[in-house]
Amino acid sequence: MSLAAGSVRRPVTTVMAFLIVILIGGIAFTRLPVDLMPELVYPTLTVRTDYSNVGPQEVEDLITRPIEEAVAAIAGVETITSSSSEGQSTVRVAFTWGTDLDEASEEVRTRVDRIRGQLPEGAEPPSVFKFDLASFPILFLGISSSTLGPVDLREFTEERIERRLERVPGVASVDVRGGLRRQVQVNLDRDKMLALDLSADQITRLLREENLNRPAGKVEEGNLDIFLRTVGEYRTAPEIGSTVVAVREGKPIYLRDVAGVEEGVEEVTAITRINGEPGIRVAINKQSGANTVQVADGVKREVARMRLDFPEIRVTEIIDTSEYIRNAIANVRNAAILGGLLAVVVLLFFLRSGRSTFVIATAIPISIVATFALIYFTGYTLNIMTFGGLALGVGMLVDNAIVVLENIFRKREQGESAEVSAVVGTQEVSLAITASTLTTMAVFLPIVFMEGVSGVMYKQLAVVVAFALFASLAVALTLIPVLSARLLRGGDAHPMRTRLQPLYDRSERALSAMEARYRTGLDWALGHRRLVILGTLALFALSLVLVPFIGSELMPKTDEGEVRVDAEMAVGTRLELMDRTFLEIERIVRAEVPEAESMLTDIGGGGWHASGSHTGNVRIALVDPGERDRSSIEIAEDLRGKLAHLPGVTIRSREGSGGRLCIPAAEGATPRSPWDSLRSHRRDLGVSSSPNARGAGCGRWPDPAETHPLNLIRFVPA
C-alpha cells in the first residue's frame, strides 16, 4: 500500500499526525531564542598581559616577542597578530577552522606558563581569552544623580545596582565605568625614609602582610566549637597610619611618622560622559547562548524596579542592541508572512477555487511550523538566517501540492471517484515531485559543508530551507490527498463560477489571453531554434562579463540606528588633552547630528587592540529610521568631513554594528584609510600592530582590567 493510499484510507490518523507536528512546532516556537545571527565561535585566542607604566617598545621586547615565540609552534596556528601599547601586550592567535578551542586554549596556557619566569616581575600574569561575540555588551545604561557625588555614586552603583543586574537571568557580567573610586594614598617622605633606613619595598611588603584576616584556631565552650580569627584588614586611613613599620632604639616607628596617609580618590585614567555630562556607564554582557532579546527585556524590567526603589538616581537606557535585533527579526518575519499571503493570492487567481486554494495553502503553515521544531531540537536560534530561509522557501512550499492537486483534478475530470482520484493522482506524480524536491535540496547541500564564517552563518539557512521543502513534500504526499478526497467532492472544480461569476469571467479571459500569447511565443521559439539558442548563449556570456563589476561582501550594510566616532592621538597623549579634544568632538556631534537620541563618550582605552589615554570613542544612538531623513551611513559620512579638521587626531566615523556581527578581517583586506598612516607611525615607535586592527570595526575587546578592583594603596614619592 502506497503512502497516499494509506493516508486516504486513514484520514483521522493522518490529520492527527500533522496536528501533533503543529503542536510540537508551536511549543518549540515559543521557546526559541532570538538573536540577530547564528552563534559564531571564531577559532581565535587572545593572550593579554598588563605591564603598567611601561612604554610600547619595552612591552614589545620584554613581553610580546617571548609570547609570540612560545605560541608559534602550536599545531593548527594560522596567523599571529600582536599589539604592544603603553602598559599592555595583546597577542591574538588565529587557528584553522575546525580546531578544538578548548584543547587549543589549554595548549596556549601551558606554553605561556613555561615562559612566565622570563617575563618582568612587575608584569601581571598573562590571561587567555576566547573571541566570543557574547563578550560584547548588549545594553548600555547611564547612571547619574543630583544628590550623590562621583565617589558615592560609583560605590552605590557597584554595591547596589551592579549586584541586582547580575542576578537577572542570562546576564553574564556587568561592567561599570566612570565616576571616582575611593583610595587611600600613602605619600612617603624621602628624607625620613633615608634617615630611618627604610625603603618603599619594605613598607609595601609590610602593609600587604598586615592587611589580612588570619585564622586563630578554635576553642571549645560547652557544646560549641568557636572558631577564632584575627582581624587585620584596614578599614580607615588612621588604621593604616598606625601600622608599625620599624623599631629604632626600642621605639616603634609608625607609618604616619614617615609618610602622609590620607583618604582621596584614585588617579583618573578614563573619563565617561553621558549626553555631555559626567556619569557612570554600565555595560551588560549576556551569557553565551542566552536569548539577547529576553536578557535585555529582563534587564529593563529590573531597571524599572530600581527606579522605584532608588528615586535618588537616574538610570537611562543609552544603547540597546536588542532593539535592532527585534526590528530585524520582525522585518524578516513580516516578509515571510507577506510572501505566504501573496502566494495564496496568486493561487486563488489561477485556481479560482477557494477550497482548492485552501488545500494547497495548508502546505505553507504546516511546513513552517514543522521547521520550528527542527530549529529548536538542533539548538539553532530564530535569526536572520533561519527566518530568511523560511522566507526564501515559502514560495516553493506549495509547488509539490500544486502538482499533486492538478493531477487529482485531471483524474476527477476523467470520471474517477474522489478517493480513487486522490490516490491514483498522487501516485502518478509522487516520483516526479520527490525527484524535484531532492534536486532543489541538493542545491543547498554544498553550503552545509562550507567552512569559515560563511559556512557557520549559511549552514542554518540551508538546513532550514531543505527541511521545509522535505516537510512540504510530506504534506503533498499525505495530507493533500486526504483533503482533496474530503473537501473537493463536488463535480464542479471551480465553485467560484456560481458565486463570483463576473470576477470568474474576467479572470478566465485574462488567463486565456495569457495562454494564447504564450502559445504564440512558443511557436515562434520552436520555429527559430538556432536564434533562441544563440541568444541564450549570448546573454549567458554577457552575464559572465559583468561578474567582475559586481561587488562582494559578507553582509550588506544596514541602518542599525547608531554611529560611532573613534579618535586616537599620539601614544602618550595626556588624558587632559584628549578630554579637550573630545569636548570639541561632542560639540560638533550635537550641532551636526540633530537625529541623535543619546550620546556615550568613553575616553582612555577605546581602541580595538590598544588601550590608553590617547584613545577614545563616542557612540551616538539615533532616533528611529522613520523619524529621520538620513541613514546612519550618511550621518557617519557627513561627520567624517566635519571632524577632519581637528589637528593632531586621527578620526574614524562609521555606522554602528549594534547587531554585533563582528568579523575579523583577513590580512590585507582593509583598504587604505587614515588609520594606515597612524599604524605606520606606531610601527616607527616599535609597536607591532595588526594591519586590520581598525579594519574589523567591531568595537573594543572586553577589558578585564575594567572589572578588577584597583589597588587599595598607591605610593607617591614626596
Q: Summarize this, please?
A:
The protein is an alpha+beta fold and 718 residues long. Among the domains are: 3-31 and 352-491, Up-down Bundle (Multidrug efflux transporter AcrB transmembrane fold); 182-212 and 234-265, 2-Layer Sandwich (Multidrug efflux transporter AcrB TolC docking domain, DN and DC subdomains); 562-703, Multidrug efflux transporter AcrB pore domain (Alpha-Beta Plaits, 2-Layer Sandwich).
Question: How is this structure best described in words?
Answer:
The protein is an alpha+beta fold and 718 residues long. Among the domains are: 3-31 and 352-491, Multidrug efflux transporter AcrB transmembrane domain (Multidrug efflux transporter AcrB transmembrane fold), CATH 1.20.1640; 182-212 and 234-265, Multidrug efflux transporter AcrB TolC docking domain, DN and DC subdomains (2-Layer Sandwich); 562-703, Alpha-Beta Plaits. The chain is 49% helix and 19% strand. The chain contains 23 helices and 21 strands. A six-stranded antiparallel β-sheet has the order 14-13-18-19-17-20. Strand 2 (77-85) and strand 3 (88-95) form a beta hairpin. It is elongated. 35% of the residues are buried. Mean pLDDT is 81; it is low at 491-496, 606-610 and 658-718.
